[in-house]
Design goal:
The complex is a heterodimer of chains A (302) and B (42). With 302 residues, chain A is mainly α. Chain A has helices at residues 4-26, 40-66, 70-91, 94-102, 107-127, 132-163, 172-193, 199-211, 213-223, 241-294. Chain B has one helix at residues 2-41. The radius of gyration of chain B is 18 Å and the shape is rod-shaped. The longest helix of chain B is centred in the middle third of the chain and has 40 residues, at 2-41. Classes of the chains: A mainly alpha (302), B mainly alpha (42). Chains A and B meet through helix 2, helix 6 and helix 10 of A and helix 1 of B.
């Protein structure tokens, strides 16, 4: 494992360099925006990566809350299976299919996505048992906030030359993204500064509510009139195949990078908990010695 | 030409944010390793 990390780091650095070269030199120039549109190759993959990380955080938080009792664990399992099955059935209803097609979405793609949710839920539960779910939660939230910060910084830099303004106040896509960022920042602040025994549970509950903002951010440009352009995949938007190809390479590079950063952050959290445990053991042993020393002569603890 | 400045600014901002975060991870790793060594010594 120790050898794998440097190898993957080198491969990821190469992929990132290749993606940047493709974005700056190979992708065709946009007829309307000129070269400034190339911000898309950092802005959009960062947004997709942030959404994915917040989704992982959501799944980890739900499992963490559900696994506290055997009954809730079982109930959550059946709810997830039910939601998956019902979601697939709903996408096959003719009226729903019509609406999806008119909104530019493919019903089969949506059904596959819905099916992936229970599969991902059980995979996470198997790979990260017990407290590791909480470690996964804090890791994905922190790295997700970093990627969301990039979205919020590169967005206005792109908007200024194209829209003539840095920020469109009241725009639902922009505002909901800012709210999403604030929710996860508050999640991290709660984790950092609260030392109550209930902190992990409260943070998991906050993360579940925070994740509800993700679909609002994602689908806002489908269902509301906003300054933000239409989605590049589905939803009525269109993109040159060469541009889309570079965009997908860029996303792949950022996904690999996010994976490595999450891996490091995960190890950091494990190390932090190991030290906390060692400190707790130390103080317990210290308290035991002190208690023994304070006992009167002739009476000893068994 | 002026628009290219924005493109460069966005790319630099992205790597600056990643750099700051990676730097914070390295610093936290260093601090924790030091604490772990102290705990082991005791």
């Amino acid at each position: 494992m120790k050898r794998l990390f440097p190898i993957l780091s080198i491969l990821t650095a190469g992929l990132l360099a290749y993606a940047t070269y493709q974005a700056l030199a190979v992708a065709p120039t946009d007829a309307q925006q000129g070269d400034v549109y190339r911000i898309i190759y950092y802005h959009v993959p960062s947004a997709w990566t942030a959404f994915l990380l917040f989704f992982i955080n959501f799944i980890a938080s739900i499992q963490y809350l559900a696994n506290r009792k055997e009954s809730t664990k079982r109930a959550a399992k059946w709810i997830v299976i039910g939601v998956g099955g019902l979601g697939v059935l709903v996408t096959f209803l003719p009226q729903v299919q019509q609406q999806l097609v008119s909104a530019g979405m493919r019903p089969s793609a949506l059904a596959t996505t819905v099916l992936c949710i229970p599969a991902f839920y059980f995979l996470v539960g198997r790979l990260f048992p017990g407290q590791l779910l909480d470690v996964l939660g804090v890791t994905s939230a922190e790295v997700g906030v970093v990627f969301c910060t990039i979205v919020l910084v590169t967005g206005p830099i792109w908007a200024r030359p194209v829209w003539g303004i840095w920020w469109a106040p009241g725009d639902i896509r922009l505002t909901s993204t800012l709210v999403l960022w604030l929710i996860y920042v508050s999640y991290l602040v709660l984790r950092r500064f609260s030392h109550s025994s209930q902190t992990q549970m409260l943070a998991a509950a906050l993360a579940v509510f925070g994740a509800l903002d993700v679909p609002l951010v994602y689908f806002s440009i489908w269902f509301f009139r906003t300054q933000h352009p239409q989605p590049v995949i589905g939803g009525g938007g269109s993109m040159d195949p060469r541009m889309l190809h570079v965009l997908l390479i860029s996303w792949m590079a950022f996904l690999c990078f996010a994976f490595l950063v999450c891996w490091s952050r995960f190890r950091l959290e494990l190390l932090h908990r190991e030290i906390e445990e060692a400190h707790a053991m130390e103080s317990l042993v210290g308290a035991g010695v002190a208690a023994k020393a304070s006992l009167p002569l002739g009476r000893s603890s068994r | 030409m002026n628009a290219v400045k924005f493109l460069v600014a966005a790319y630099i901002a992205t790597w600056l944010i990643h750099g700051v975060y990676l730097g914070s991870l390295v610093r936290r790793f260093g601090r924790l390793r030091q604490q772990l060594n102290e705990v082991k010594k005791k």
